[in-house]
Amino acid sequence: MSASKFCNPLAVASLSLMIAACGGGGGGGNPGSGTPNPPTGGNPPPPPAQIPASLSLIPTSLSVFASLSGTAPTANFAAQITSNAAEGTQFYVSGSYSIEGIATISDSSGPIGSFTVQFKAPASLGAGTYTDTIIIKACYDMACTQQIQNSPQSLPVTYIVAETPALTSLSPSTVQANTAFTLTVNGTGFTNTSVVIFNGNPLSTNFVSATQLTVSITADQIAQPDPYTVVVAPSAALASQVLSNQLVLGVIALPAITSLSPSSIIAGSVGFPLTVNGSNLSPVSVVLWGGTPLQTTWVDNNQVTAMVGAAQLLTAGTVSVTVQSAADPTSPVSNAVPFNVQPLPALGVSSISPSTVILGGPGFKLTVLGQGFMPNAVVQLNGSALNTTYLSEGQLQAQISAGDIVAVGTAMITVQNGAAGTSSPLTLKINNSAPDAVGFQLNPAHSGATTFKTLSLPTTRAWSVNVGGTPSYAVIAEGKVVVTAQVGGGTQLVALDYATGATLWGPISLGGTANAVYDGGKIFVMSGSFNVPMLLQSYDLATGNLDWTTTLNGEAGLSAGPSALNGMIFASDASATLYAVNEGAGSIAWTQLVMNGDDSMPAVTNTGVYVTYPCSTYAFEPLTGDSLFFNNTGCEGGGGATPVVANNVLYSPNSGGASNSGTTFNATSGVILGTYIADVPPAVGTQMSFFLQSGTLSGIALSNNTVAWTFSGDGSLVTSPILVNQTVFIGSASGNVYALNAATGQQLWSINAGGAIPPGAHWGAPMPLSALAAGDGLLVVPAGNTVVAYTLSTDP
After folding, report:
1. Where are the domains of the chain?
2. For the chain, what is the largest distance between any 2 Cα atoms, rounded to a whole number of angstroms?
3. Band of pLDDT at residue 375, cut at 50, 70 and 90
4. Does pTM top 0.90 for this prediction?
5. In this predicted model, what pLDDT tens digit does every residue of 726-778 receive, in sequence order?
6. In this structure, CATH architecture of domain 10-162
7. Do 256-342 and 10-162 fall under one CATH topology?
8. What DSSP line would sit under 540-553, residue for residue?
9. How far apart are CA 760 and CA 207, in angstroms?
């Protein structure tokens, strides 16, 4: 392509001038310059040799980027002449572009001496990298026969036509600090001049394709854990002008595992949460189970949890557990820790709870303990499948309805383990509805009322046994009388024969003080001391063998004891916690915090669990622990007391201190019904209720809440009353036991038990709790260090 020329005669008087081109390629002056045109027909005389001049270009090269779909770009450069010439000396400059033809030169409207380079439209060229050269001459004469020093000058031009780089991903996206690696940058619009700029620094870049670049990252460049930025420029020359979108490379410290909890499980188990302990764990860390990512929850920098599914536990073996620093599969991975999936043990059933139920009772959940249970295992009653819940390899739970226990006798409990076979059977006893005394005030609701088929008042005791210390209330069931007795600094648990008082098993030593309850063939004992966590233990009533021990977190209260019903045990402690514990395995089903928790023995029905503290009354759903209602009168205080539930009325002793006075509520809705005064928990029947107030027993008609009669006895009445049929029994500190007509208060009978009878339950009373008990035809009285039994019925 022929060259275009630009000329401009200039008078130079300074050391440096910017030379601007003028149009045309021949003679002619510079209008407005004040310099005359040269003579016609010849060039001006050559300048004196003593006038040196030098040409330079700023910049010395041009690099331009254009988007393939964008407009044609322009670029500027300037010609500079350096000279010591006197004022009025003229120089001439001319410019051209070379044969590639990707750009043209035009005058600039800017400062004198500057040129504008106009590049071709990018779409007309297509994607690629184009080069050209612009030639600039500076001369002493207009015809440029005498060029000045350093003339001509070449200006290299690079023209890159491509899409603007766009980044989509980095691989890896997370790496370990201070470790060299190769970074792959994925995106679009890359060319062989593209440059990756890492955290502000251009790197030597390897062009793979229009969608991929790679760079080598040294350990020094990622010495510290931090986020590092990544962008791409079309070329090194354009690194400060045209940049892609920014992505971030995560540079982290390598995660490490120190322990797993649990570290093993039985094959065939249900899914479970795995706790991974270690260091350098982050919110984006992922637990890998044999290389497979698990749903992971970040706890803190030292712990994450992950859900292991049942499908991952079907086969016995060792699984490698690691932590990947991020979800990107190329992210760094921690050390591996083995997790043991143990073989499923041979099928076997060791115990059931309850093991004894009452004919005609309500439906209940049967807990089956053993080993080798599969998730599809089914509990069978006499060969018929029950609705079964798989809890673990060693525990199942099955629903037994009231219709399943309609005949006295025994039922066979087996476990059918899929195709693996059926276990040997265990026996579920179904007994007549003998009126057992299963805990304090006879029943879990503490109503103090029971019914025998017949009742007669004895003339003498049936038997008397010295148990070595102050005895508790008696638990009477399955032909046995079980008491705890405070002996020295501890407590002993003993089972006596119902008919003779002979010791059947025990005494078993327990720490601190203890109280016991019965349910489903088991004796449950809560024991402990101040500032010592409570122990809850299960003993087989038939043998006295220990089934399990569960440590509760809170310390024992002054007079708290457990209650048990329908396969669950309920207990409160002196650390403001109410516990619900599964009878079968001793596992804690739920807990609830309560205000100023202390000595409240829970009252339990099929529909509610009730505990009472000064000014505060709580009701919870037995299976879930959900709140049914809560009442607080605005005060606070220490201590607690044992509530009573009868006829859907809750007697809540919420006045505090040594009093058992309080408020009555609708046990379902929590609506306040009224108030009452009592020294100890009352006995409540269907027609009358019985309250001990300042040593006087009052019979109050439930129909109108009026006092029907009062009885003071020998002036030393101290125990909670109990009601058997239509006879009220109460004990005196003198050792006298009285029987009264429930309707009239008439004294029907009295006898001396041979020792002082301890006071009834109230806050601050000594443990174990002492009280009268009536069950299976016996009246059992604690007197001094003895347990005294009286036969009230031979056909209870």
Report:
1. 10-162, 166-252, 256-342, 348-431, 440-791
2. 163
3. confident
4. no
5. 999 999 999 999 999 999 999 999 999 999 998 865 444 445 688 999 999 99
6. Sandwich (2.60)
7. yes
8. ETTT--EEEEEEEE
9. 91
